[in-house]
Amino acid sequence: MPNPEGRGRASRTKPPAPRRLVVTAGPTRERIDPVRYLSNDSSGKMGFEIARAAAERGDQVILIAGPVDQKTPPGVIRVDVESARDMLGAVKTAFLGSESRAKGSFGKKGGDALFMAAAVGDWRPKRRLSGKWRAKDGGDEVASLELVKNPDILATVGRRKGSRLVVGFALETGSGLKRAMAKLNRKSADFIVLNNETALGANRTTVAILGKDGSRVNITNKTKRDVARALVQLHYSNSAPAE
Ligand code: CTP
Q: Are 17 and 106 in contact (CB under 8 A)?
């Protein structure tokens, strides 16, 4: 369980020092042609609530958002991206650190924590057409689209996180506990937040927060705002938050 610098102890005596948080939110969009794309139904709500909850407690927040219809929470620096590869670049800059002093950067030091709430598309079209994909370009009744794998952002930065906190999300249909734990290990996350497809677009959600040490906390039918507040607590505690 992450507790660099004795954060748990400090939080009982005085308010914790502000941290540099990187949050991703929303879907990614993979272009097929100038007017079509592959994407998913993620609304971005969970990530935006995490960014809001962290900013409200005084953290510095860079929010990396796919195409969503959400208002930027006060005090949050927002970077808009479209594709998974764009998001990977923005996460590396913000979380791993960069010489750049641009808007989406904390400078060389990078972030203290990453919350990977975005629903990143696993695939993208192998070729992006410069003109519109016309019906005649397919077969008579059947057409196919060749796809290639997108980079796994969480796994890529998870490998290089050191002692920094990394929280992933797993949207699983059915119970999915085993698959979520496998993702936690494969992607080197400290926690993974397991939810299911009923969370998409909804205001309330039920999640299980799974820790790499085997801890598990269930949060049942709470607003995403409440869940977000519990998640930003992870940064300051020795263990997953009590419900
Ligand atoms: N994720 C990522 N990069 C990807 C795919 C997913 O960083 N290319 C992150 C998501 O933001 C989330 C976690 O990995 O925090 C799990 O995402 P999920 O879609 O549930 O898992 P996948 O690895 O895509 O596995 P599968 O599609 O088989 O469920």
A: no
